[in-house]
Specification:
Helices cover 39% and strands 22% of the residues. The strands form three sheets. A six-stranded mixed sheet has the order 7-6-5-8-9-10, with helices on both faces. Strands 1-4 form a two-stranded antiparallel sheet. Strands 2-3 form a two-stranded antiparallel ribbon. It starts with a helix and ends in a 10-residue tail after the last helix.
């Protein structure tokens, strides 16, 4: 499955490698990869693979799940489609509480004690998804874990997930996509080492021009 999803994401340029012309993240970090999983929604074949894949890994890893909760905003559509496939209720967690009405942060019905899986599109350093997990736990939910489309596997993210005692299962990952990108001719084979060097320490720009 990891390679199938990797091929899908590369084909639709949801994950796009450009080691010779790095992208600049909002943080200022130079990156050889651009990731926009929102493009999955406009690519029906890739979308079908992704949503079926999410349903499959949730059933396999979190069989007791009762509710899916998407992250705002990128995870909402994927949670909704996957919930439809699985016949489950879904909702989503806002980045912050509304400033009007009931001032909800969690949208959708959620009872204390319900077993929840968080659906996320992308995990890098893990901060935003852990914030969602914390909000759900504060509301009394039992968070079984996270199902995500793509993870960088950055050490900072792994450490944060471990510290928060939350499991993540991803459809594909940075290493797999780099491998498939080389196999499919998107990048040169020798670029893989540069990409992994970036993944291991995004603040170290010595991979540029290496």
């Amino acid at each position: 499955m990891k390679k199938v999803i990797a091929k899908d994401l590369l084909k639709i340029k949801a994950v796009f490698f450009r080691p010779e012309e790095p992208f600049t993240w909002a943080s200022g970090i130079k990156s050889p990869v651009y990731c926009d999983n929102r493009l999955i929604l406009t690519a029906p074949e890739a979308r079908k693979d992704v949503e079926n894949g999410l349903a499959e890994i949730i059933k396999a890893n979190y069989p007791e799940v009762e509710v899916l909760m998407g992250t705002s905003t990128a995870g909402i559509a994927h949670a909704a489609i996957t919930a439809e496939l699985m016949g489950l209720p879904m909702g989503y967690v806002r980045g912050s509480s509304k400033d009007h009405g009931r001032q909800n942060r969690i949208e959708g019905k959620l009872d204390a004690g319900q077993k929840v899986v968080v659906v996320e599109d992308l995990i890098s350093t893990g901060g935003s998804v852990i914030d969602v997990v914390d909000a759900l736990r504060e509301a009394g939910a039992e968070v079984l874990g996270i199902a995500s489309i793509f993870t960088y596997g950055m050490q900072k993210g792994l450490d944060r997930l471990a510290a928060a005692n939350v499991k993540n299962v991803s459809l594909t990952d940075f290493d797999t996509i780099a491998e498939v990108a080389a196999e499919e001719g998107y990048i040169a084979t020798e670029d893989i080492a540069r990409l992994i060097k970036f993944r291991n320490n995004p603040s170290d720009e010595s991979w540029i021009g290496a």
